[in-house]
Structures are given as structure tokens and as C-alpha cells.
Design goal:
80 residues; mainly alpha
């Protein structure tokens, strides 16, 4: 859960947000949300046109594999 930092009150107070684990959790959460956002836009997972758990699972697995390949290529370019 993220803390509201705008003018309204938040359900999370300083006892939680001052911990290192909270900061790490927010960083990891951002990375996971980026992956799902990419899958929705480029991986055809936004509006699934398949029926059945197995077919949708296959589509999700395929989209994640393609996303991983693209990410590996970008990481190799950054290293070289």
C-alpha cells in the first residue's frame, strides 16, 4: 500500500514509512507494475480474446516470455 503524500490524510503513518522495508517494497512494486503495464499495452493482455484458463494462461506465459527476451536484449545493450 502506498502512502498519500498530497494534502489529504493517509492510512499509512510514519511508523510504517520510515522503515527501510517500506522503501524497498515500493521500489519492487513499481518494477512489477511496469511489467504488467507493458504486458497490457504490447502483450495483448489488456483485452483477452481467448476463452478458457489454459488458453489465457498460455497467452500470459507467451507475453511474459516475449517481454523477458526484449528486456534481456536491452540489458545486454546497456552492459556493452
Amino acid at each position: 500500500m502506498a502512502q498519500h503524500i498530497t494534502g489529504r490524510t493517509s492510512a499509512i503513518d510514519g511508523r510504517t514509512t520510515r522503515r527501510l522495508g517500506y522503501v524497498v517494497s515500493q521500489q519492487k512494486r513499481k518494477r512489477v507494475e511496469e511489467v504488467f503495464g507493458g504486458l497490457k499495452t504490447a502483450g495483448f493482455v489488456h483485452k483477452v480474446k481467448l476463452r478458457g484458463v489454459h488458453r489465457v494462461g498460455w497467452l500470459f506465459t507467451f507475453a511474459v516470455a516475449a517481454y523477458s527476451l526484449v528486456r534481456m536484449r536491452k540489458l545486454q545493450e546497456a552492459i556493452a
